[in-house]
Specification:
By secondary structure, the chain is α+β, with helices and mostly antiparallel strands. The chain is 29% helix and 32% strand. The strands form 9 sheets. It has a 7-stranded mixed beta sheet with strand order 2-3-1-4-5-11-6, with helices on both faces. Strands 18-17-23-14-15-22 form a 6-stranded antiparallel beta sheet, covered by helices on one side. Strands 29, 34, 35, 36 and 37 form a 5-stranded antiparallel beta sheet that branches. Helix 6 packs across helix 7 (222-231). The longest helix is centred in the last third of the chain and has 20 residues, at 680-699.
Length: 700
């Protein structure tokens, strides 16, 4: 196996929307390079890159897949990222470790809004890229209109470097505008092109397209512009030089055309990826990776083989046969098989192990990984997605990409009570594979809660839970963690007296309850003087109050934001005990709450909606209908960020409504802000429903 150098590596993420044909295009590249004997099919379920049963069932990518292929002397690490917004966290991690992108647009489908988020992050990283227009073998498809749609959607400038020979069913090849040569592709989807003459009918179009290409490249570089003005043209070598410079600076995005399904135009794409996209060394020269040292100062990570080893874990899978498998982008130095290193993010040493390159789920062992490489490392004990691995004498941390919080939550319970612990174990493993999931036990509602990005995300997760771990669950909307409090001050006596023969029970406590400001929690004040209650019994009174706070008098929700003052009482020398005063404290608290005007509280969320301006009015109207209060609107690009406070109960199914309102183009996030009093009419309904539910449980 030949030695790989950072200069000969390309790390490229393939980005698009769901259904564009991105995975099919990569399957064509695998066949064209000879990495696989024949092209796999997404439709039939034989694709190398979509190998999970859930992907076969839905015919879409649900996770990032890696393939590593060679083209000439260059190693191409291609990351097939999901186009569905539900799995955008995978796409963002893949983009984070890439040096360039290939944007895939299907001329038969057009441009979808789904890739706006991917575009925003790629722009934030100043990621250079190519455009591949696929699907040109389908009816009513044209190359130029497809490029115009891309330019409008991504707000970029494109420049064709190939144009198609034929159209629709008659598509048979491409013309390379840099070299001026034409190629026809066979019908067997092998990707083995044959050189041919430029069709006479195309010569005028080719000449015009090449002139536009030369002018675009010349305008992007002063030296080339002078050459063009002096000689009236640029040589193929000068064109390639200018294309590479302009691409790296994102002055334009070279566009290649063809058909992934017919494996047509793929050789030109391979050549463009090698010639025009940056190596890890090129990328670091323009945009160095900044890592933190000791959580403070930053340092640039050098893409040199001689530098200390640094790597970033961007993906974790749990394979039934190989166990945990961490995918690592090596940023500096080199890593040999079985070499130990430090997990700098967690401060623990890892023993290391074998190193693998991958094509989908097929792994090939390698001896060494160098700066710029991507390898899979199995069986690391303490390493997870987002961790930085480093040489022990050079512990730096590479920042993680920001990920959106999950938007939909579901309460779940196993269909078999015997599977409770298995559910927790299985979901924790799935969360380790997919950090955009969150799983927790709610201490207030005693429910297991799974939070995800969408209904599709949840469905896929439960399918994996059933397939991998043999567990089935029942799912329902989670309970809202309501609370209770009081509006005014009140006093009450809690007196517990019981005579049972022999020693009795006696405890007497006078309590004052008063409201605290929202978020004030609980305060217990001891104002006993003169020994009205012995000091050793006072903690028992507090414990009785705290126990009573677990279930309020309205509907059994916890009581919060109150101050309870113990100011008087009495005791019996023989019959008083800690238990008696604990019961007295509980009784006194409940009586005081009854007189202090108990009210119901609901969680209020701070919501931010990022919407295109076209839908701003509809989104604001919808938030108002959910009892939301608009706090601010902030322009951002061609959209607006709407900030509002909204009750949690009104947001439980917001994702579907927002998608319907905006055609899936708006996104939102929310975080807990505070608790507020529930309006009286709603509170009455909620209290009645919960009392009925508790009664039904008691009756059963």
């Amino acid at each position: 196996m030949r030695e790989t150098k950072p200069e000969s590596i390309r790390n490229i993420v393939f980005l698009s929307y769901s259904g564009a044909g991105k995975t099919t295009l990569i399957e064509a590249l695998l066949a064209a390079t000879g990495a696989v004997p024949q092209m796999g099919s997404v439709t039939v379920g034989t694709a190398s890159m979509d190998y999970e049963p859930e992907e076969h069932h839905r015919k879409i990518s649900l996770q990032t897949s890696l393939c590593q292929i060679s083209w000439g002397e260059t190693t191409l690490n291609l990351l097939d990222a999901p186009g569905a917004p539900s799995f955008y966290a995978e796409t963002r991690q893949a983009t984070h470790v890439s040096d360039a992108a290939v944007w895939v647009v299907n001329a038969a489908v057009g441009v979808k809004s789904e890739w706006e988020k991917a575009s925003d992050y790629a722009t934030a990283l100043a990621l250079p890229g190519l455009i591949f227009v696929t699907g040109l073998d389908k009816e009513r498809t044209l190359f130029r209109p497809a490029l115009e749609a891309v330019e409008q959607a991504l707000e970029i400038k494109t420049i064709p470097v190939t144009i198609p020979i034929g159209q629709e069913a008659g598509l048979e090849g491409v013309v390379d505008l840099v070299s001026g040569e034409a190629y026809r592709y066979p019908a067997d989807a092998s990707g083995k092109r044959q050189k041919c003459e430029v069709p006479a009918a195309l010569k005028e179009e080719v000449a015009a397209a090449r002139k536009a290409l030369v002018e675009c490249v010349a305008e992007a570089d002063d030296k080339l512009l002078n050459t063009y003005l002096g000689e009236g043209t640029l040589s193929p070598e000068e064109l390639m030089q200018g294309l590479k410079l302009g691409t790296a600076a994102r002055k334009f995005f070279p566009a290649v055309c063809g058909s992934g399904l017919k494996n047509l135009g793929t050789v030109e794409l391979l050549n463009a990826m090698v010639s025009l996209l940056p190596s890890p060394v090129d990328r670091a020269a323009v945009r160095p990776v900044e890592a933190t040292v000791n959580g403070q100062r930053t340092t640039a990570v050098s893409p040199s083989v001689s530098a200390p080893f640094t790597g970033y874990v961007f993906k974790t899978i749990i394979d039934p046969f190989m166990g945990h498998m961490n995918y690592v982008r090596v940023y500096s130095g080199s890593l040999a098989t079985d070499a130990g290193f430090l997990n700098a993010s967690r401060g623990v040493k890892e023993r290391g192990g074998k190193l693998f390159h991958a094509i989908g789920k097929k792994y090939q062992q390698v001896d060494t990984a160098v700066a710029g490489d991507i390898v899979a490392i199995p069986k690391l004990k303490d390493t997870q997605t987002g961790d930085t691995l480093a040489a022990e004498n050079s512990a730096v941390i590479i920042p993680k990409p920001p990920l959106m919080r999950p938007l939909m939550s579901f309460a779940l319970e196993p269909k078999s009570k015997a599977d409770i612990e298995k559910v927790s174990l299985g979901l924790h493993k799935l969360v380790e594979e997919d950090p955009s999931l969150e799983f927790q036990r709610n201490n207030e509602t005693h429910e297991m809660i799974l939070s995800a990005m969408s209904q599709l995300h949840v469905d896929v997760t439960f399918e994996k839970l059933r397939r991998k771990y043999g567990i089935e669950v029942n799912v329902h909307t989670p309970k809202v963690p309501y609370k209770e409090t009081v509006r005014k001050t009140a006093t009450a006596q809690g007196k517990y007296k019981k005579q049972t023969g022999g020693h009795g029970q006696y405890g007497d406590a006078w309590l004052k309850i008063e409201p605290l400001k929202r978020g004030g929690g609980f305060e217990f004040v001891d104002e006993i003087v003169g020994g009205a209650i012995p000091r050793n019994f006072i903690p028992a009174v507090e414990k009785g109050v705290v126990d009573a706070m677990h279930e309020g008098i309205l509907a059994g929700f916890p009581v919060v934001d109150v101050r309870v003052t113990l100011y008087d009482g009495s005791y019996h020398d023989v019959d008083s005990s800690e238990m008696a005063f604990k019961i007295a404290g509980s009784m006194g608290f409940k009586k005081a709450v009854e007189q202090a005007t108990a009210v119901l509280l609901e969680p209020i969320m701070l919501v931010e909606v990022n919407t295109p301006d076209d839908f701003m009015g509809a989104v604001i109207g919808d938030l108002n209908s959910r009892r939301g209060r608009i706090q601010d609107t902030v322009p951002k690009g061609h959209g607006t960020i709407i900030k509002a406070t909204v009750p949690l109960v009104e947001m439980l199914k917001y994702q579907a409504s927002l998608n319907s309102l905006t055609g899936g183009r708006a996104t939102y996030s929310m975080d807990f802000m505070t608790y507020e009093e529930v309006p009286r009419e709603l509170a009455t309904k909620i209290i009645e429903e919960h009392k009925a539910a508790r009664g039904a449980v008691a009756a059963s």
